[in-house]
Amino acid sequence: MSEMSPKEFKHILVGVDDSEDAQLAFRYAINRAKTDGAKLTIVSILEQDNMNVYEAMSKDFVHGQRADLEQHVQQYAKLAKQFGITDVATVVDEGDPGETIVKDIIPAIKPDLLVIGSISKHGVRRYFGSQAAYMAKHAPISVLVIR
């Protein structure tokens, strides 16, 4: 009987925020992308419901938050390139992280693996169950949840 070789992924999407789990997910994703010779897309979502009403109404605040997030994601991209991944892209979007990734980003960029940390440490959302569970259930591709 021939040995089953593990699936090779061509395009890996990794979700990052400022949690430790996200850093573990990122570390896994860059190793996997390097092994498979895969494209790596790094995504982060600006969660609107973490803002109070005044912040959410202020274009400057949202713009500032988004700029910070984009800079943060660029740092991850730089690390991935230093690690030896040649094809690296970044996506920053706004909204509910799970839904935005599943409904907007995956259909748009068509990765074949999503790598995420198990918990997002910030926001009220952690009390309502994890984004990871939503993505694992609803994503049309393989999802790897890193703990």
UniProtKB/TrEMBL annotation:
Major localization listed first in the record, in broad terms: cytoplasm
SUPFAM superfamilies: Adenine nucleotide alpha hydrolases-like
InterPro entries registered for this protein in UniProt: Rossmann-like_a/b/a_fold, Universal_stress_UspA, UspA
Every UspA domain range: 9-147
Pfam families: Usp
Key words of the record: Cytoplasm
Compartments in which it is found: Cytoplasm
Domain of life from the UniProt record: Bacteria
Protein family: Belongs to the universal stress protein A family.
Stated name of the protein: Universal stress protein
Gene source species: Lactiplantibacillus daowaiensis
Origin organism lineage: Bacteria, Bacillati, Bacillota, Bacilli, Lactobacillales
